[in-house]
Amino acid sequence: MVVLSINDLCFKYNERIIFNNLSFKIYQGEKVGLLGANGSGKTTLFSAICGLLPLGGGDIFLFNKKIEKGKFYPEIGFIFQNPDDQLFCLQVRDDIIFGAENLGLSPQEIEKRLQDVLSVTGVENLLNRFSYELSGGEKCMVAIASVLIMQPKVILYDEPSANLDLKARRRLINFLQSSEQTMIISSHDLELIKEVCDRTLVLNQGKIVADGNPTTIMGDRPLMEENNLEVPPSCIN
């Protein structure tokens, strides 16, 4: 089943072409790694999928429903690169339940969902902590919990392992591997993409220039170098 369909997407920023008839589809249950050099438009693409940008052309469909600028789509979860941009309440509990409260859910349903996401993300011991006291890895998992509680159908992860130490990064990878949700992960952490994703897209000059198996794509040195990317160590023969 097609979850997300990007059709001939066009977008300019200060006359610079970011997307030039960009098209691809994401299918239910896929874990897709989005690769591209700095400035290739990965974060911009995520913003467009969430309906935050006025498109210059093309359409985005979520389950055959057209995404329109300025509308809120709880079916789409967006994990920011910097958790501090996502966590703004005093306590962890308030940060996690904020989105669910704004969906108009009953207190009973919110509490049920809270317990579910605490179990999945393993942040039960952080519930009564102040958000600003948390480590980078703890903030990352709390930000994920704050999105999961809204039960999105597809989650966009923007550089989720940025600034994490090795232990927190490994915990994140284990979580992403075990997750059953459809996801797109934009990351320069190519080893994370290789471990987690079953499909990889390479974005360059406004188009998808490669689409396929992560190991095959990232092991293709000419392709990677042509798109200003490095072959990860585990793919070097």
TrEMBL record:
InterPro entries: AAA+_ATPase (IPR003593), ABC_transporter-like_ATP-bd (IPR003439), ABC_transpr_CbiO/EcfA_su (IPR015856), ECF_ABC_transporter_ATP-bd (IPR050095), P-loop_NTPase (IPR027417)
Domain ABC transporter, first and last residues per copy: 4-230
GO molecular function term, any single one: ATP binding
Keywords: ATP-binding, Nucleotide-binding, Transport
SUPFAM superfamilies: P-loop containing nucleoside triphosphate hydrolases
PROSITE patterns: ABC_TRANSPORTER_2
PANTHER family tied to this protein: ENERGY-COUPLING FACTOR TRANSPORTER ATP-BINDING PROTEIN ECFA1 (PTHR43553:SF24), HEAVY METAL TRANSPORTER (PTHR43553)
Family: Belongs to the ABC transporter superfamily.
Protein name as it appears in the record: ABC transporter ATP-binding protein
Organism annotation: Cyanobacterium stanieri LEGE 03274
